[in-house]
Write a structure and sequence with these properties.
By secondary structure, the protein is an alpha/beta fold. The chain has two domains: 201 residues, Alpha-Beta Barrel (TIM Barrel); 58 residues, DNA polymerase, domain 1 (Orthogonal Bundle). It is 39% helix and 14% strand. The longest helix has 27 residues. It is globular. The mean pLDDT is 94.
Length: 287
């Protein structure tokens, strides 16, 4: 069974609609798919409806979640996948809303830095790149830079202007990873840290930091990810085994926004079963 536990739609910075993602997952023969848009649950209803009303006889199981933006006390960006949580848990939803709101202030600062360097781009042009009230992110700015002719692709925009080490990069408010884990757990879900050792993205989490995450209730580590090297994967597998954490794999699919393919990396069914058992209720959407 193909199990992909990290994907995005145009409810955040992906390019597929939630229903379009369901169509592609079914066509690809995926058995379990997690929808994890950045700091939002806004694609959940459309994706669930698309699956439940799909004309095929697919037995796809849909895992609803969110990739929650976090940062530690030193300002290091850390992403936490919250899966299978209760979307009526107001404290968690309020935190997601607060994080999305601060993304706007961050975008304004990045645009100001670009303009000061002679790279003309406006907030309205960035807004034009997102769908409705999708979670605003750097990929939307990348698309605006492409449309303006400053770069040829999203990838070039990130490599040139928008990577974490860039002089234009700006952090935004987000909870600590420990706080995010606790909120996910309080909402009955499970917490998996996303791509923690992806060094080409910038600074990475130190292995010593996992002590506090585990104490907060961390359930798993996303090991098999397109941005992890073989050595990074090996170190994370050793850590997961030593600390009794679930090992996951996923594509981090963004549609046309990234080169990542659906089910490019996957999760072992036994690991998924163990992870799902840690939620306080069975919340997988299936027919």
């Amino acid at each position: 069974m193909l199990i992909d536990l990290h994907t995005h739609t145009n409810a955040s910075d992906g390019t597929d609609t939630p229903s379009g993602l369901i169509d592609k997952a079914i066509a690809a023969g995926i058995g379990v798919l997690a929808l994890t848009d950045h700091d939002t649950t806004r694609g959940w209803q459309e994706a669930s409806s698309a699956l439940l009303n799909h004309p095929s006889k697919s037995q796809l199981q849909l895992v609803l979640g969110s990739e929650i933006s976090c940062q530690d006390e030193e300002g290091l960006s850390i992403h936490m996948l919250g899966l299978l949580f209760d979307s009526s848990h107001q404290a968690l939803i309020d935190e997601l809303d607060k994080t999305r709101e601060h993304r706007l202030f961050r975008m304004e600062k990045i645009i100001t830095r670009l303009n000061e360097a002679g790279i003309e781009i406006s907030l309205d042009e960035v807004y034009a790149m997102r769908t409705g009230d999708a979670t605003l992110g750097r990929p939307h700015l990348a698309d605006a830079l492409v449309a303006k002719g400053h770069v040829a692709s999203r990838q070039e925009a990130f490599e040139t202007f928008l990577h974490n080490k860039s002089k234009y990069y700006v952090n935004h408010y987000s909870p600590t990873p420990e706080a995010a884990i606790k909120l996910i757990k309080q909402a009955g879900g499970v917490a998996v840290i996303a791509h923690p050792f992806a060094s080409k993205r910038g600074k990475t989490l130190k292995i010593e930091a996992f002590d506090n995450l585990i104490a907060a209730g961390l359930d798993g580590i996303e090991v098999d990810h397109p941005d992890h090297s073989d050595s990074e994967k090996a170190e994370l597998v050793s850590l997961a085994i030593a600390r009794n954490l679930v090992i996951t794999g996923s594509s981090d699919y963004h549609g046309d926004g990234k080169l990542n393919r659906l089910a490019q990396f996957t999760t072992n069914p036994e690991q998924w079963a163990h992870l799902e058992s840690k939620a306080n209720e069975r919340r997988v959407v299936k027919r």
